[in-house]
Write a structure and sequence with these properties.
The complex is a heterodimer of chains A (544) and B (40). Chain A has 26 helices and no strands. Chain A is globular and about 75 Å long. Chain A has 544 residues and is mainly α. With 40 residues, chain B is an all-alpha fold. Chain B contains 1 helix and no strands. The N and C termini of chain B lie far apart (46 Å). The chains are: A mainly alpha (544), B mainly alpha (40). Chains A and B meet through helix 6, helix 10 and helix 15 of A and helix 1 of B.
Chain lengths: 544, 40
């Protein structure tokens, strides 16, 4: 099933005229901001890094809007409806690592080093830091190959939304949705993307806050709502035996220690998604868009509030929806949220909004969903396109003379590739491809990124060792160790006669990130210590 | 506490609010500070 598709389907009883008018006004605003970005884009630096002069509010909202996608709000919100508030640890990790650590410890150094190295993209930053064109090309290649897989999922969600809500045929919807984002990404560059993202981030912030407040009001207040949910814990064993076996013990308690769900929550969500966000190229590049560290400090303030109010609201609302569905109006059967959603967690949040909250919340939520999809998409299109246009082809003679044109061509190519994937690939495969990309990003790029910022002794060979070890171990884990992907791929079964290499609990449910990251770090450190360091003059210049 | 059934969940909720507060306070205190040598 396409992530987010069902969700959006339950909203189809919206008044298409009202929603169409809202979307039209919204599209005009997007067009205006995209045009503003276009007019201010005079050089390749403007196109790639928004001229290194972005306002801190725009920077923080844009970072947050690119960070939080439709699947984070609705998909993970639905998982909270099924498994409870343990997902609030992901909010904690998102703010602690995705904002505080990212901006304070990564942001300042990335910005100042990026300016010193005159780096305009994430691959170029790592490549120039280690004086290696091959490292830059490798990272750019990974980004360009895998990001369109991820962006195609988001594109499909947006297109399905237009199809179900507005009645636009799917392939037309795909084209229209892709075209709207394409126009402001291609012409507006990163300035256009960040202006539009800031608008979308603001809509997301207001929409999710409205959702959380309405939810608590509807359920009788904060403590009362939590208390009612706590009292429902006994229902898990009776009504959700499968989830009980996985470790589910209630919506306001953690899963049972060492259970399947506990490992999924801790290894895949808290650690994989929480820490993995630090090495996402589309987010890291934003640190280089501001003119001084002052803007980064200000962005910490805005970004912390943004993540708490968007992701936090989605996960709390998802869990609390159980109280609403189990205490229905007279004449309706009490159900758990996952039962009311027919077993599909993706439709819990929209269903709750539709049945429990005022119509205005549903309209705002629709715009919020469009915003979440488009803001993530635009950032992905931009980073994928610039990887091709600037990083891979930028060294060609023609490329050096036509920087902006080449970057725009790269963005166009990235968008076409994403639309192509969205048309041909089965959604389940794409979603797994996305998970693989995130795993590889975290395990392969994070140690290299940290070493680039903080460790003078790191060498080119060490960086290669870290990247290769992280990539290989992650792929090995997905193919031979992690039950979900290994069983689907079937390679382990073909070679060894069983789904996974080690079937002793908890290995089949431990995310490969958990062992790939430490091994990548060890490889980077050991090989660096055994090889010749970079020249002192270069290091003194960038670490001054 | 707060009607929640587990101190770990209370910790997650309060931890999220607390770490956000840290971000807000840091941002407010350093509003006009650049944080890197070359900016000073």
């Amino acid at each position: 099933m396409i992530p987010g598709m069902d969700i959006l389907c339950v909203a189809y009883n919206l008044n298409a005229v009202v929603l169409g008018s809202l979307i039209a006004v919204y599209a005009i605003l997007i067009g205006y901001l995209g045009l503003r970005g276009f007019r201010k884009t005079k050089s390749n630096q403007d196109y790639l890094l928004a001229g290194r002069s972005v306002n801190p509010f725009v920077m923080a909202m844009s970072y947050g809007a690119a960070f939080i996608s439709t699947s984070a709000l609705v998909g993970f919100g639905g998982i909270a409806g099924q498994f409870g508030m343990g997902l609030m640890w992901l909010v904690f990790m998102n703010i602690a690592f995705g904002i505080v650590v990212a901006f304070i410890w990564f942001g300042h150094r990335t910005r100042s080093m990026g300016a010193e190295l005159d780096a305009k993209t994430f691959p170029e930053f790592i490549g120039r830091r280690f004086q290696s064109e091959k490292i830059k090309l490798f990272i750019a290649g990974v980004i360009f190959i895998f990001i369109p897989l991820y962006s195609s999922v988001v594109l499909i969600s947006g297109a399905r939304f237009l199809q179900e809500v507005m009645g636009v045929p799917y392939f037309w919807a795909l084209g229209v949705f892709g075209a709207i984002v394409a126009v402001y990404v291609i012409f507006g560059g990163l300035k256009g993307v960040m202006y539009v993202d800031a608008l979308m981030g603001t809509v997301m912030l207001l929409g999710m806050l409205m959702l959380l407040v309405s939810c608590y009001v509807r359920l009788g207040g904060v403590v009362s709502a939590h208390q009612k949910l706590t009292e429902m814990s006994a229902l898990v064993a009776q009504r959700l035996p499968q989830e009980y076996i996985l470790g589910h013990r209630g919506w306001t308690v953690m899963p049972e220690f060492n259970s399947v769900w506990w490992w999924t929550l801790v290894s895949s969500l808290m650690l994989g998604v929480g820490i993995g966000a630090l090495a996402q190229p589309q987010l890291a590049v934003r640190f280089m868009t501001v003119k001084s560290g002052k803007e980064l400090n200000r962005a910490v303030l805005v970004g912390s509030i943004f993540i708490l109010c968007t992701a936090g609201a989605a996960y709390m609302t998802g869990a609390l929806s159980n109280v609403f569905f189990f205490h229905p109006e007279a004449g309706k059967t009490p159900q758990l949220a996952i039962e009311a959603a027919g077993g599909n967690p993706d439709i819990i949040i929209p269903m709750f909004i539709k049945e429990a909250l005022p119509a205005v919340v549903l309209y705002v939520f629709s715009l919020t969903m469009l915003s979440a999809a488009m803001s993530t998409l635009s950032s992905l299109f931009h980073v994928a396109g610039t990887s091709l246009g600037h990083d891979i082809c930028g060294n060609l003679r023609w490329g050096r003379e036509n920087g902006i044109l080449l970057s725009r061509t790269g963005v166009c190519f990235g968008i076409v590739l994403s639309v192509f994937f969205a048309m041909i690939l089965p959604p389940g495969v794409v979603a797994r491809g996305t998970a693989i990309f995130f795993g590889i990003c975290a395990a392969a790029f994070l140690p290299a990124y940290v070493a680039a910022l903080y460790w003078k002794r790191a060498t080119r060979a060490g960086i290669w060792a870290g990247i290769v070890t992280g990539s290989v171990v992650t792929v090995f884990g997905l193919v031979f160790m992690h039950q979900k992907e290994a069983a689907l791929l079937g390679i382990c079964k073909l070679i060894c006669g069983r789904d996974v290499l080690v079937s002793v609990h908890p290995w089949p449910v431990v995310d490969p990130f958990v062992y790939a990251l430490p091994l990548s770090v060890i490889a980077l450190v050991v090989v660096s210590l055994l090889t010749r360091p970079l020249e002192k003059k270069h290091l003194d210049r960038i670490f001054k | 506490m707060f009607g929640l059934g587990d101190l770990y969940i209370v910790g997650a909720v309060l931890g999220s609010i607390a770490v956000s507060a840290v971000g807000v306070v840091y941002g407010a205190i350093n509003w006009n500070r650049s944080g890197s040598e070359e900016d000073k």
